[in-house]
Specification:
Strand order of the largest sheet: 1-10-7-6-5-4-3-2
Number of helices: 41
Distance between the termini: 81 Å
Radius of gyration: 35 Å
Strand content: 5-15%
Number of strands: 38
């Protein structure tokens, strides 16, 4: 019995995880073929085929019906990473033959076994531009040929994260079938992540709509999550897919236990949930993915034998889809609206943007159509003299990710439509085909639709031209319907007939009945051609009339066409009015015009509705329903563009402004006034920092536009100049960069020197640029001491330049009490970027003879403790207080008077000694440990302040969380954050204030010396470890975590591109993700030491040290010596995860953190005072 026949009779069980079951064999690098092939499971087919055979046999022994080939990453594109792209075909042949040989050993007539050729997603997503569609399809073609030549019984395209990637794989499969006249069953499976969509944001309904267009035999979902999180996706498929459904979940969600990946579903719990899918939903194919073992599949095989396949009668909803969601063709309360303005044939604005190659402007035009209510976006790049295929590639590649609605590719040339299809993962509509150039051209577009899984618009045009009567339109439609459905196999629900709206505004006799014939054709097509849909380009009917009259005629014509059965219309939704807004006389005359109700006396026309209709609108202007710029005057509108952070339409307003004002006056008197309002709103708590940065981006765009119109006079536009730097040894730059943004966009010139700047480089820049002030920033406690040293050196050199200090490590009290009296020049403390702006305003005012420039009063008037707490980030947020910034009093911290810390606590047993690297951590698991309070309030500055609780919750829900979720998805999708860890356990003992860390031979490897409280409890970190004199050997753990250098590079790119808001968001997320990774791994270490039983049940409590022991980062009071990082590097060798140490002992990249981890129950944070 064949696979498909068996599928009708019983539940078919696939195997489980290949990777998981290879890992448990403890294969060495040599087994894989050396370091070059690390992670290349497929190369085991050459070096250790017995290991692969063992996995196959293990699943067949427990009764699995289908085993998958070891070819998940088997395309030439994937193999190219290992230098074996040319071996892709042979590898796939080898994978299929090996699996087929093992399967045949277990197959019987009563229980056949099948081999499924596994085709994974690869590592490059075409929707994101990592690889072209054609390149990927060609790569899959090699894999398909190899798997089938090797004997695979069916093909499974699985773990799909990008619909366009899935289409490329399916395209390669069905092209091979067509070429070889041979077919095997095909399964397509998508991966829905824990956040409820595919990696690119695709909902399950959109995936079904896009993939059900292809002649696949089974559709399903696998990987991503365990069965618990897969339920809704599986339910939707079973309720809506008219073909068998598969479900191959992971063995739950992964976590790290004993340094290895652990999945939380037992064989029993896994089986119970998958059986529920089959029994209750009607799943036909079951199996396992990551983490599933023969033990899981054994129980599943036994349970599946007791299940009778459930009968389902699901019907696919006729719809299009984007890469985000499904758009049904039949709308509940409307016709299907196709936005018409991204069409070079009908929109001058679109042509101008296209000719200027203003792709961002074209995307904005598409978004505007979406905002105005379009369900589908028509895209046409037909413009004489341009390369339409190239234009379609450029535009479609941007629209598919930036516009959420599905696309209609509109052209008279099929090559342009295909160019668009090669970027669209969703299901599109092709507009259009007809018989004007004969049957071959008609069928070419139909074939294109079938190849890419699209619907088609068919115009009622044949070899004799455009049909004008209802009879002629229906005759052509019937011919096309029969040929498309019966000969070409296109579903009727994928055909839109366009009976063509022709003008009734010319006064020519043959045009008079155009509208009524079209309406009658719509009525008959809906009655006579079952399942087919209808569509119209409405605006043609009013061609040549005034703008105001066109809106009325189009609206009435559209209403009556919908009444006759019209399903969809290509319109500008903002130019359609409901009939109740149209005057009674205008409505009456419009209908008389549409239905040609002229009145004659003999041969003489005594009443012509066209003439009457034209008279009704003489001198009447159309009312624009589009959003206008706020403000009556250009000055008001420009100011509001800055306040609202709105860049769309800004250049047009600037052009109008230049008609009345000079560029310099616009900047100084209008735009800066807007930025002043922004500052006031921020200072009063009415505007959050991300919105401030949007205003700064608008300001930057405006200044960039105006610069060519300004006279080139040095410093003409600058109110003042600041040299700005993060001090020596500090790699943190977010605070400094925010000051740069705010000052620059408020009329100041800023020379941003970057991070780790010595005082000599700062002073050199000050001299070179003749600056009005120096700004020094720092995040670390040590940075405050560097600032102090800098000020002392400036005193020695007799330099008295105004200095502004800022950064998370500083407090006003420290600056006022310790530093201000020290420095001989003016010294200011800036709590935030706007305080820095206020300080510069004071300084510039003073130098210009205005204002008193009160030293140290730089606008930081708000001193409420609750606002200080909202600023906390990272470890400060965990503690709920700022790290101590004041220099320690001179007291003896080296004495050895021991504290009362219990010296006799139990010592846990570590799972190993030495260090290990962990680099297979899922970013979703790390995100679960993010301190959202620190991120939202501290990093992103969405502060509650005096805002009512419910109002703040609404802000977070409506504004903050959508940004957070999108940024997490992007970080995963684009691999912007890559979590890696190096950690280890080491034998140790204390001796006085020292911690001695031993090597494998128990000889001293490194020694840490920690300060002891000079009074009070006399606490010292060494006290938390067993002493040398006790004779007991203790254990200490160290870890260093990072989210990778790509994070710093990407943040820098955003800042350089003036994308300030995204810079703030991403930088904040990257820093807090590193902190979350440290939190996650500390918990794993507690689990490995067997002390996690004392962990609090809620994450927020873990942020407050509600667990046994503690982790201490170097630079904090209990272990203040940053140079001790060198010793940690000796123990862990973090270079292996691409983390280095700066000259000032700072971790690079910045998004990294290290710690010494203490297991003692009494260990908590403490200060040395």
């Amino acid at each position: 019995m064949s696979f498909l026949d068996t599928l009708k009779e019983r539940i078919i069980v696939f195997d489980g995880a290949m990777g998981t079951n290879l890992q448990v064999q403890n294969l060495s690098l040599d087994d894989f073929g050396g370091l070059r092939f690390e992670g290349c499971n497929e190369n085991l087919l050459v070096t250790r085929p017995d290991a692969v055979e063992k996995v196959h046999a293990g699943f067949l022994e427990v009764g699995c019906d289908v085993i998958e080939t070891n070819s998940f990453n088997g395309t030439p594109v994937d193999f190219d990473e290992y230098g074996i792209a040319d071996q892709a075909y042979d590898m796939n042949v080898r994978a299929a033959r090996l699996a087929k040989r093992i399967a045949s050993d277990f197959a019987t007539k009563a229980k056949p076994r099948w081999v499924a050729g596994s085709m994974g997603p690869g590592r490059k997503l075409p929707t994101l531009g990592h690889i072209s569609f054609q390149e990927l399809r060609d790569a899959y073609s090699v894999q398909v040929r190899g798997l089938l030549d090797g004997g695979a019984d069916l093909l499974i395209v699985e773990t799909c994260q990008d619909l366009l990637q899935t289409k490329a794989a399916l395209g390669a499969i069905f092209a091979h079938f067509k070429e070889t006249h041979r077919r095997v069953p095909v399964i397509a499976q998508v991966t829905i992540e824990t956040f409820g969509t595919m990696l690119n944001g695709t909902e399950i309904a959109a995936a079904l709509t896009a993939l059900a267009q292809f002649p696949i035999d089974v559709i399903g979902t696998n990987c991503g999550t365990g069965p618990r999180h897969m339920t809704e996706s599986v339910r939707h498929l079973c309720e809506n897919a008219p073909l068998p459904v598969s479900a191959l979940p992971n063995a739950g969600l992964p976590s790290v236990v004993d340094g290895k990946m652990h999945y939380d579903e037992t064989p029993e719990s896994f089986t119970a949930q998958v059986v529920h899918f089959a029994n209750d939903f009607g799943v036909n194919v079951v199996g396992g993915c990551c983490g599933t073992t023969p033990a899981h599949l054994k129980l599943l095989v036994e349970a599946a034998q007791r299940i009778t396949p459930k009968q389902r009668n699901a019907k696919l909803i006729p719809a299009a889809s984007s890469i985000y969601f499904q758009q049904p063709y039949v709308q509940d309360a409307s016709f299907l609206i196709v936005g018409e303005r991204v069409n070079a044939s009908g929109s001058k604005k679109m042509r101008d943007l296209l000719n200027a190659e203003d792709w961002d402007g074209l995307v904005a035009l598409g978004k505007e159509q979406e905002r105005e209510g379009a369900h589908i976006l028509d895209v046409n790049v037909d413009y004489v003299g341009r390369d339409g295929v190239a234009d379609m590639h450029e535009l479609a590649s941007r629209l598919v990710t930036n516009v959420k609605i599905p696309l209609m590719f509109d052209s008279t040339e099929w090559q342009k439509m295909e160019a668009g299809l090669q970027h669209a993962g969703g299901k599109c509509i092709l507009n259009s085909t007809n018989y004007e150039d004969g049957v071959p051209r008609f069928l070419k577009v139909i074939d294109l639709a079938k190849e890419y899984g699209a619907s088609v618009v068919i115009g009622t045009i044949d070899e004799d031209g455009m049909a004008r009567t209802a009879d002629g339109k229906v005759k052509i439609a019937t011919r096309a319907y029969d040929q498309a459905t019966k000969e070409a196999g296109l579903a009727a629900s994928d055909i839109f007939f366009d009976p063509l709206a022709l003008p009734i505004s010319t006064g020519i006799e043959e045009d008079r009945r155009n509208a009524l014939e079209t309406i009658e054709a719509i009525r008959r097509i809906k009655q006579e051609l079952s399942g087919a849909l209808t569509i119209l380009g409405v605006s043609n009917v009013s061609f040549g009339l005034s703008a105001a009259s066109r809106i009325v005629l189009n609206s009435v014509f559209l209403h009556d066409a919908v009444e006759a059965g019209l399903d969809s219309a290509i319109v500008n939704a903002s130019k359609i009015e409901p009939l109740n807004r149209i005057g009674e006389q205008e409505l009456k005359v419009a209908r008389e015009l549409i239905y040609d109700q002229r009145r004659f006396e003999g041969d003489v026309c005594v009443y012509d509705p066209l003439t009457e209709f034209t008279k009704l609108f003489e001198g009447v202007k159309a009312k624009s329903t589009s959003k206008s710029s706020k403000g009556e005057t250009v000055e008001e509108r420009l100011k509001n563009h800055i306040i609202d952070g709105e860049k769309i339409g800004l250049e047009d307003e600037l052009k109008r402004g230049l008609e009345k004002h000079s560029a310099l006056d616009i900047i100084n008197n209008i735009l800066l006034d807007g930025m002043k309002v922004v500052g006031d709103l921020f200072g009063s708590g009415q505007m959050q920092l991300p919105f401030v940065l949007q205003s700064a981006e608008a300001m930057k765009s405006a200044v960039r536009f105006l610069e060519p119109f300004m006279e080139k006079k040095g410093g003409a536009t600058a109110k003042g100049t600041m040299v700005l730097a993060t001090v020596k040894g500090d790699v943190h730059d977010i605070g400094k960069n925010l000051v740069d943004i705010i000052l620059t966009n408020n009329g100041y010139k800023v020379h941003n020197l970057g991070i780790k700047q010595t005082i000599d480089s700062i002073l050199k820049a000050y001299d070179e640029h003749g600056a009005d002030a120096i700004g020094m920033s720092g995040l670390l406690v040590k940075s405050t001491l560097i600032m102090k040293e800098n000020l002392e050196l400036m005193n020695e050199r007799g330099i008295k330049v105004p200095v502004v200090l800022g950064g998370a490590a500083l407090t006003r009290k420290y600056v006022e009490d310790d530093l201000k009296s020290l420095y001989h020049g003016p010294l200011f403390y800036a709590r935030d970027a706007f305080a820095g702006l206020h300080t510069m305003d004071l300084l510039v005012g003073e130098s210009n003879g205005g204002g008193e420039g009160k030293t140290g009063e730089s606008g930081d008037a708000v001193k409420a403790e609750e606002e200080d707490i909202e600023d906390l980030v990272g470890e400060d947020a965990k503690l709920g207080v700022r790290k101590i910034t004041k220099a320690r009093a001179i007291a003896d911290t080296s004495h050895t008077t021991r504290s009362n810390v219990n010296p006799n606590v139990a010592i846990p047993k570590p799972p190993f000694y030495g260090s290990r690297i962990i680099d297979d951590i899922h970013l979703e698991d790390v995100f679960a440990y993010i301190n959202e309070t620190a991120l939202f309030k501290g990093q992103w500055q969405f502060k509650q302040g005096r805002m009512p609780v419910e109002q703040y919750k609404a802000l977070v829900r409506e504004k903050v969380r959508p940004v957070y979720e999108e940024l997490k998805e992007r970080s995963i999708r684009d691999e912007l954050l890559v979590p890696r860890i190096v950690y280890g356990y080491f034998p140790c003992q204390s001796e006085g204030n020292d911690l001695i860390v031993y090597g494998d031979d128990h000889s001293e490897r490194v020694r840490f010396t920690f300060p002891r409280q000079p009074a009070g409890k006399h606490l010292c970190l060494a006290d938390y470890f067993a002493s040398r004199e006790s004779g007991r050997m203790d254990v200490v753990a160290f870890h260093l975590v990072t989210v990778g250098r790509r994070a710093s590079e990407y943040a820098h790119q955003l800042f350089k591109a003036d994308n300030y808001t995204e810079y703030l968001y991403f930088h904040g997320l990257s820093v807090e993700t590193a902190e979350a990774l440290a939190e996650l791994w500390h918990q794993c270490i507690r689990q490995e030491l067997g002390i996690a039983e004392h962990d609090a049940g809620e994450l927020t409590q873990l942020f407050r040290q509600q667990y046994q022991g503690s982790r201490f980062s170097f630079g904090y009071p209990a272990c203040p010596a940053l140079e001790d990082q060198v010793k940690l590097f000796t123990l862990l060798d973090p270079g292996r995860i691409d983390v280095s140490l700066s000259e000032e002992f700072q971790l690079e990249p910045e998004q990294s953190t290290s710690a010494i981890i203490v297991h003692h129950p009494e260990a908590k944070y403490f200060s040395i005072e």
